[in-house]
Amino acid sequence: MVEKDCVFCKIVAGELPSEIVYEDDDILAFKDINPVAPVHILLIPKKHIPTITDIEEEDAALMGKLLLAAGKVADKMGIFDRGFRLVNNCREEGGQMVYHLHFHLLGGKQFGSVG
């Protein structure tokens, strides 16, 4: 499912440019255009799912693939062994700006504890 007005769906369709660092049949990972860390990669399912709360039972395997891809990308970007942060923002108060499920893979610097 592709949403015609979704910027991430347009990246998946090749309608918008991106610096892709990983791709398979179901997942796409590309560099964030406004990085907040030395390594800042966005990981998305190619299937349009608006938020993490919109995941359904049928998406369980896809979500597993997304998390496995995060590890592969962290390794490729040289941060797997040093450590990284994987973040999902959900809805307005959670800071979500693009309503296509995505994770921010952040690394290359020391992060403070969040709890």
Describe this structure as you would to a colleague.
The chain is of the alpha+beta class and 115 residues long. The protein has a single domain, classed as HIT family, subunit A. It is 20% helix and 22% strand. The protein is built from two helices and five strands; from the N terminus they run αβββαββ. The protein has a five-stranded antiparallel sheet, with helices on one face. The longest helix is centred in the middle third of the chain and has 17 residues, at 60-76. The protein is globular, with a radius of gyration of 14 Å.
Describe the protein's topology.
Layout lengths: L6 H6 L7 E4 L3 E5 L7 E7 L14 H17 L7 E4 L15 E5 L8
Antiparallel strand pairs: 1-2, 2-3, 3-5, 4-5
